[in-house]
Each structure stands twice: as C-alpha cells, then as structure tokens.
Amino acid sequence: MAQVARVLIDCQDATGLVYHISKVFYDKGLNIDNNREFVDKETNKFFMRSVVSGDFVIEELKADLKAILPEDAIVRVIEPTTKKIVIMATKESHCLGDILIRWEAGELDANIEAVIANHSDLKSLTRRFDIPFIHISAEGLNREEHEAQVQKVLEELEFDYIVLAKYMRILSEDFVSHYPHRIVNIHHSFLPAFIGANPYKQAHERGVKIIGATAHFVTSDLDEGPIISQDVINVNHRFEWRDMQRAGRDVEKIVLARALSLVLHDRVFVYGNKTVIF
Amino acid sequence: MAQVARVLIDCQDATGLVYHISKVFYDKGLNIDNNREFVDKETNKFFMRSVVSGDFVIEELKADLKAILPEDAIVRVIEPTTKKIVIMATKESHCLGDILIRWEAGELDANIEAVIANHSDLKSLTRRFDIPFIHISAEGLNREEHEAQVQKVLEELEFDYIVLAKYMRILSEDFVSHYPHRIVNIHHSFLPAFIGANPYKQAHERGVKIIGATAHFVTSDLDEGPIISQDVINVNHRFEWRDMQRAGRDVEKIVLARALSLVLHDRVFVYGNKTVIF
Amino acid sequence: MAQVARVLIDCQDATGLVYHISKVFYDKGLNIDNNREFVDKETNKFFMRSVVSGDFVIEELKADLKAILPEDAIVRVIEPTTKKIVIMATKESHCLGDILIRWEAGELDANIEAVIANHSDLKSLTRRFDIPFIHISAEGLNREEHEAQVQKVLEELEFDYIVLAKYMRILSEDFVSHYPHRIVNIHHSFLPAFIGANPYKQAHERGVKIIGATAHFVTSDLDEGPIISQDVINVNHRFEWRDMQRAGRDVEKIVLARALSLVLHDRVFVYGNKTVIF
Amino acid sequence: MAQVARVLIDCQDATGLVYHISKVFYDKGLNIDNNREFVDKETNKFFMRSVVSGDFVIEELKADLKAILPEDAIVRVIEPTTKKIVIMATKESHCLGDILIRWEAGELDANIEAVIANHSDLKSLTRRFDIPFIHISAEGLNREEHEAQVQKVLEELEFDYIVLAKYMRILSEDFVSHYPHRIVNIHHSFLPAFIGANPYKQAHERGVKIIGATAHFVTSDLDEGPIISQDVINVNHRFEWRDMQRAGRDVEKIVLARALSLVLHDRVFVYGNKTVIF
Are residues A206 and A132 part of one domain? Predict the structure, then answer.
C-alpha cells in the first residue's frame, strides 16, 4: 500500500523551484495528491506544501529535496500520524470542553496527553473524559517558580503542541523559548485590538459593534505572535460586557479549534510574525 | 392625512417612563407605528425612539413630553423630511461614488449640497452628477488656514451632516467642535485596531486574517468617536497590502452607507463615546 | 426582594396598547427592566416582551393585563426559572456535546432530563455527564411503533422543550402535534435550500460557495417550521462533501445553541411559520 | 521587458503533470510568479493556473504545453490585457452604478462597450459616464423577437463577457448558447434557495434570518449555472420584504463585482455546473 507524506518546504524564491521539486517527486514515481505554493513578493520567500503518495523512504526523499534546493531551505517530510497535545487551562471550560468533545468523536486528530491547570475547577470535566488532570496552583509562587513546576511536568510528557485553552496567566519569555511555534493560544479579542486584560470590558467601553477572537502562536512578544485564525460576531448596545463575553466564547472555541486543526495537519508556515496557511 | 414624526427621548431612567410617554401619545390620539427603548444599566440612562402618526402640532407634542419627563430629558420631535449633507473627500472615489449612485436612484434620503475636496481628482465624477464640487487645496496652507477656508464655504451652505467620504486630512479640535455629532467619518480599519495612518499596511504587517472598516461620529479625540457601524472581510497571506486596501474599499463604502442611513433616519443616539442604534 | 417576570403579549394591533399595558405595570408599581415591541404591518399583529420587577402576584398581573387587552390576546407571565429539556439524538455527538459542555459550566439555563437516541453510540458520552441515556432502537419497528415507544418514555418525563440534536429520523405529524412549538430542531442546511436528505452532498453537487445551518421549531410540515436562528460559513471548490459536513458541524452546534438560548429565555414568538425574536 | 501571461490548464489528472508543465516553463526560462493547482478527486480532473513571466511567444508556449499534456487538455495562454464587457440591465441602478464607479476609478480592469437595457430608466445614469446606452424595448415583442434585436446589437460590438446587472428578463436557451460561460448574472437570492421570481418576497414569507446573493454563469438551465461568488447578510422580523430588497442590493452589487473581478482576471474554471476559483 502506498505511503503518504506531507512535504513542507520554505526557502528563498528562485526560478525553477517548482520544476526541481516536482522532478524529485516524478523521478521517485510519487503522486502529488495536493499541492499549494506561495511566494511572498516582499521578502521573496517561497513556501510549498505537497501531499505525496507512493513508495519511498522519508529520509531519502528529504535528502533528495535538500540536494536540489537552496542552502537556506527548510524541508520537512511528515507522516500524517496522530499528534500529541497538552492542554493548559485555568477556569473557563468552553474551549477545553470543545476540544474534549471533538476528541471523543474521533475528530480531533490528536491525542490529549494531559490537561494542566492553575486552578482545580476543570478537574471534574477533564476526568469525565478519563484524561489526566494536573493541578499546579500558582498560589504563593512567583512566575518563575510556577513555570518551573509546569515545565517539570511537561518534561515528563511527550507532546507536539501545547494548547492554551483560556490559560489566563502570562508565560515568560524563557518558558516560551522552550517551545518555539509549538504553543497555540486563543486570545479573547480581535487582535491587535484590545491587547491585554479583559478585552470584553475594553470592547464594551469602546462601544464596538463587532467583537472577535484570535488564535495565534505564542512568542516572547505578548499578544504579538503569528496569527493563525480569526473570526468575529456582531454585537450591539444591548450587550453588557458579560454578554459580549458569553457571545465571544462561541467565537473563541471555534477559532481555536480551526487553528488547532490547521496546525495538526501541518498546514501552517510561520515566518516573522506572520503565517502562510495552506 | 396623518402627520408622522420621529420622537427621540433620552434621560435618566425612572419608573413609569414608558407609561408617562405612551400616555401623552394616547391622550393626543396618536398611533405608535414603531417603538424601541433601551436602558443602559451602567449609567442608568433611558433611550426611546417612537414613530408616531396622527393629528398633532410638533411643538405642543414636545412640550407635553417635556412636562412629564425628568428635567435632564432631551426630547426631539423630528419630521421625516429629506436631510441635507455636505460630502468631504480627497482622492479616492469609492465612497463618494457609492453615495452618488444611491442619491441618483432616490435611495439616499438626502440631498447632497456640495462635495468639498482638498484635491481636484474627484471633480469630474462629482460633476457627472451635476453636484457642486468645491476644491479647496491645502497646498501652502497650515491646518488652521485650510480649515478656515473650508469653514467659510460651509457657512454659505445649509446642511444637517458632514460626511467624510475618505477625507484624508485630520480635522482640528476647533473645527470639529462646530459640528458636534454632525460629522460622520469612515475609518479604513476595524477600530480600535490600527489607529492612525495607513491601516492596511499595518494590518498586512501584523498578518491579520480579517480586516474591517468603521463608521463613526468625529469628535475631538481622533479615531475615538462613537462607533455607528462596523463590518469585516476575510483576507489571507496572499493579500499584499494593496489587495487588502482594494478588498477593504468594498467594506468601507457599505459601512459608511449603512451608518449614513441610520443617521439620516434619526436612529442613532450618542452618549459618551458610544451609540444606541434603533 | 423584588420578584421578576417575563411578560409576553401578542394580539391584534390597536391604538393605545403600549399605554394600556404600561399603565397596568405602573399602577402595580412595577419596574420595566427591559421592553421590546413589534408590529407586523402585514398581519397587523402586535408583539411585546417586557421584563418587569416588583411586588406582584403572577395570576393577578395576568388577569389585569387580559382585562385591558383585545379578546384574542395571548398573555404569558413567566417566572425566569430554569427550564427542563429532553434531548433526542442519533449518532453524531457535536450538538449533544456542545449542550453538555454548556450545561456542565452552568451556562445552559436548563436541566437536561434525559437523552433519548435511536442508536447507542452516544451512550458513553452522555453517561460521562451522569445524565440518563435512553436507547430506543428503531430496528424492526415502523415509525408508528417507534414513536409510540418514544412517547411512552416522554410521558414519564417532565420537560418544557424537546431538542433534536441531530436526530436523524423524521417525526410524524401525529408525534409533532403533541408538542406544539416545543420541539427545536437543527437542520444541517441553510433552509429553504437543500431540503431533505444529505444537504451537504446536495450543496457539494450544486457547487455553492457558502453553506449554513438552520434552527427551527418542528411543525407537521417537514423542514418548513418557523426559523429561529441561521448562520453560514464560506466553503470553496477544495471542500469535498465530507469537508463541508465537518465545517458545517461547527455552524450547526452554534446555531442550535443560540436558538436554544432564545427559546429558554422566552425570547421567541411564533406566528404562522415565522418568528419574532426579542 | 519581460512578457507576462496567465496559463490555464485543465485535463484528466495523471502522475507527473506538475513536473511536465513546470519543465516546459523551466526549459523556456520562465518565472512562475503565481501558481495554483487543484485536483477534483471525484471526477479526477486537474486544474492549474500559473502566471508566468519571461521571454516567450504565446503560440509556441501553448504548443509546447499541449505536446506534453493528455489529449483532452484545454490550454489557454492569456495576456493580461484589459477585457471588454457589455452590460445588460433593466431598471435598478445599484449594480450598474457600482460597475460604473469602479470603471471611472480605473479599478474595473475592463472597458464597458455599451449598456443594453429593456427599459430607458438607466439611460441618464449611463450617459453621465459617456457610455453608449442602447434601449431595446421588449414591448409588443415576444422573447424571440426581442432577443433577435439584442443579438443584432451584440453582433456589432466586440466583447469578452456579457454582465447581467439586474437584467430582469429570462434569456432563452438559444440566446445563451451563443455565449457559453461568457454571461455573468447576479441572482438576488442565496441560490439554490428562492429560485424564480421575487426571491425577497419569498424570503420574507419564509421568515429567514439571513438573505444572500449569487453571481453565476448563465447556462440554459435557469438559476442552475455554475456559481462564482455568494455572500449573505443578516435580517430579522423587522424587515419587510422591501427592506430585505434594500439590504440585499448591497450584497448583490458586491457579489457581482467580486465575480466580475475573478472572471476578468481569468481566475475561474468551469466544469459541469461548478467552478474552481483560484
């Protein structure tokens, strides 16, 4: 039976890239099931994601591609296996719950290794799904100490991505640096509007007519990480800020789920603080 | 034939307001064709807009309402006549053009008294519709001098609202203070994101997945006036900033038209930097 | 402490209705916390929903209102208590799961009395939340026989609404007639497009660029019941019908949740096959 | 200076297509500025649109591509020149006006050869833009006779596409057959809902909460042509059908403009009654 792999390439643009890459696939007798490219004219960067099938050895395919590509090229050949995630949360259940329901239905395409939370509120919900819940209270600890405990737990786990499902603590630059482009966060506003604390209160005070949510990779620059997905919902003067929050929750969970699906299917390239999404 | 009026009331909330107001209508034998109320719990403010029909004298109706309302009450009884607007623009034609087409079709519910522009690019388009085009160049003038010329022209005109249809100059606090809640602007971003110059370039650099436009009343606080209408459109990594601008133009003109329609039909209350829209 | 009630009135329109109704509230010393009215000009029908607070006896308030209203008036005075629902489902878990998560978070404003399903797939998910799961297989039964069994179970339960959370069997006219305006269904298409079986396959074949979902009350006229809520999502040529289904599920669950919230808060009037939503 | 062309290829899918095509480009020293492919798994059809630049002769490039492609392949090599359109309309001005404003601003990327209308209402608007207006009244004529007159006028004109900008007459199968995939229509509903006359009245009667518009190629099968673009807008019970119509107009003109832009930039493939949009 044919093997399948996702081939992700990014490098400086050059004439003949598509030709050279497709020649490698062709010479190996591989089928291209799906292919998307993009060139960012501003930075002259080339991005390509191909799903190929056939009879091949991953390391060989990767080597053959590297051989014909510019030196700066990053080549990833990824088998479409089920990835592993760790979820971090605080008290609100809508994002965690949404992920759990998808997981239960076999539609998440990921295994949930554990839920780590700085409060115990979500323990009961998590346990309903027989998933390990690890409560690491931040009480009496400074950020450094708390993160040290979280990291110690993370070190025991095997995972591809950390999903911040309404984790309401700010992560330190040091913490983030351990997981580059591996932490996905849902921010409860339409970034870059309403950066910072309680965006719904800010939105209410500003009297906006639309609110939104943003899923992004976490970088050391708070609320400035590469955006993966955004969506919005109409509001009006009858919405108090808690109504905005309630309405916003539906957007948050859907936007996070969409971003997670894109990330888990290796559809996201990051460059600078931007993304290319195929 | 029955007379029609829009009655707009705002005051501190109190028990019995709806009763007292509807009693005035009832005692005068007026029909309520349309009625909407809202109480802002935070500030305890009451807003009501009724469309009434029957046989009445506007000034008497107003007096009778004032008599039963709290002292701070603002009561407006407005005949649904065609209002007059002055449009201010710069070089881009999409918003101006959209308004002209609506006007030509008899769907604007306003007369356009003049188009004032700081460049002459839109002269030909405006003239196609036989509407006075007044070019007031800002070249060689400081803001004060330029605005003085604009104001001199405005003084000669009779109008209810000024519509900034992509007028790309910042208006001084002094200028704005002459027309409180009478200047409607279209801002080419989803406020409060991307305040300031070239929001599309900012949006592109930030790598957002949605862009928007905001129509608002102009106040002395730049980009902070009460929002009337907002809308958004999806974008992706393939959009260069000029593509975002192009896509954004469609949102801008529709959002401005919606806001203008709300304002012209007296459906907008302003309080603080917020609006109530009925 | 003040009592609160939702007052819902619908009747033929007449001059002075708002006055007469607000006079009843005023004479009883009640506060109007929230008030919305609508007159359908076509049928000349009047709808009003007020949230009142104060010191009153529900039956007296109802009687006093009936006394001043036209004979055809339907007056409901409803205490804002937690309502009871029964969920009916088949195999898909996204809508059921979404409701369960909201319920767990205390955000559903309803108690779930039971989940009734014609397959056993959702038993495990339902039991995770300690909610009774009743499997009534339709195998070997005709519609009449199966519905008789369902109805027997329903008779043992106390509930305000039945929620069809992707219940994939058609209910008979007879069954529906027992629960007028008490069955809320989510239809997996943007009604009235793609009535009938497998709307996503139909949508895919038609090559549409947007798909949607519709929550509505179930009436004897299949897929023609009064619409409560609708929403849509963009798709494109890359979506196979199963991708449309996957994307559509997110819309379905959000639209159903919105409709359910409106229904549970007594915000929906039904007239003919339409709704007025306050 | 480098020449630019849009290369559009569609054929049965086969292994190595991307390789063979990109080899042709590479051997000729062409740059690929933009490249998109799609394979419809159901019909096993391959679609590719490349924008190439370099030094080449169009007919040679086309021949070289045909030489390496399956026999059924349709290859188009199109210079990005300004296309020519004829607009057909009836009485409503919003779509025509929108196109005229874009044309005036130099943003249409097309020349408008003429406006043909079965009523004279739009004559004044069209003339404002110095564009020929041809009134062909249908009064006293049967469909055949009227279309014969229209076709006679069209024969005198040179054009790439006919744009039906709210042309309210049904075109015969015979007429349509003369311009395969060259007639773009805006349908004032969210097809396939509300096929036929007065969709807004139908939508109002059905009590929908969202209305939409659909731009599509006209085929002999009325309202069933391949969909190019769709969009929607929220409505509620307060909308009478004329309000829906008014709100719908904004959607109609934007959807038509988007579709027109896609068509004029050769971004649309038609297969069966579907489109692939790059």
Answer: yes
Could you tell me the pTM of the whole model? 0.96
CB A39 to CB D34 under 8 A?
A: yes
> How far, in Å, CA of C7 to CA of C266, rounded?
9
Q: What angle do CA A207, A211, A212 make, to 5 degrees?
A: 155
Q: Are residues A103 and A237 in the same domain?
A: yes
The torsion angle over the Cα atoms of residues C87, C92, C97 and C100, rounded to 10 degrees, is: 10
Chain B: closest CA distance from residue A114 (Å):
30
A273 Cβ under 8 Å from any chain B Cβ: yes
Tell me, yes or no, whether B20 and B138 share the same domain: no
Return d(Cα D96, Cα D257) in angstroms, integer. Answer: 10
Are residue A104 and residue A74 in the same domain, yes or no? no
Give the residue numbers spanning the domain of B215. Answer: 83-277
Domain CATH for D43: 3.30.70.260
Give the catalytic positions of C in this structure.
223
Shared domain check, A236 and A104: yes
Q: Which two tokens stand for residue A204?
A: 């209410």
Say which of A72, A223, A243, A266 is annotated catalytic. Answer: A223
β-pairing, A268-271 vs A274-277, is antiparallel
Q: How far is C277 from chain D (nearest CA, A)?
A: 7
* Preferred mutation among B17, B24, B30, B32 to probe C, highest tally of C CBs within 10 A: B32
Q: HSE (CB half, 13 Å, CA atoms) of B150?
A: 27
Chain C neighbors of A250, CB-CB under 8 A: 254, 257-258
Whether B236 contacts chain A with CB within 8 A: yes
Cβ-nearest to B232 among A232, A238, A240 = A232
Of D28, D53, D78, the residue that ends a domain is D78
Name the CA dihedral angle for D144, D145, D148, D149, rounded to a multiple of 10 degrees.
-150
A160 given a catalytic annotation: no
Mutate one of D4, D9, D19 to test the A interface: name it (highest A CB count within 10 A): D19
Regarding whether B258 and B194 lie in a shared domain, the answer is yes
C25 interfaces chain B, CB cutoff of 8 Å: yes
| CATH code: domain of residue D237 | 3.40.50.170
Same domain for B139 and B8? no
Number of domains comprising chain D: 2
Taking the Cβ of residue B208 and every Cβ of chain A, the question of whether any pair is shorter than 8 Å is answered with yes
Q: Do D39 and A33 touch (CB under 8 A)?
A: yes
Residue finishing a domain among C33, C48, C78 = C78
Of B194, B162, B38, D197, residue with least CA distance to A190: B194
CA C166, distance to chain mean position in Å, is 14
Local confidence pLDDT in tens for the 278 residues of chain A: 689 999 999 999 999 999 999 999 999 999 999 999 999 999 999 999 999 999 999 999 999 999 999 999 999 999 999 999 999 999 999 999 999 999 999 999 999 999 999 999 999 999 999 999 999 999 999 999 999 999 999 999 999 999 999 999 999 999 999 999 999 999 998 888 888 788 999 999 999 999 999 999 999 887 789 999 999 999 999 999 999 999 999 999 999 999 999 999 999 999 989 999 99
The crossing angle, in degrees rounded to 10, of helices B241-264 and D241-264 is 160
Q: Which residues of B touch D129 (CB under 8 A)?
A: 128
The answer to whether C209 contacts chain B (CB < 8 Å) is no
Quick check: C1 pLDDT over 80? Answer: no
Query: How does the average pLDDT of chain C come out, rounded?
Result: 96
> Given B93, B105, B129, which is nearest D93 (Cβ)?
B105
Q: What is the ipTM of this complex?
A: 0.95
State the Cα–Cα distance between residues A134 and A126, nearest whole angstrom. 10
The answer on D146 and D25 residing in a single domain is: no
What does R_g of chain A's alpha carbons equal in angstroms? Answer: 21
pLDDT in tens, D36-86: 999 999 999 999 999 999 999 999 999 999 999 999 999 999 999 999 999
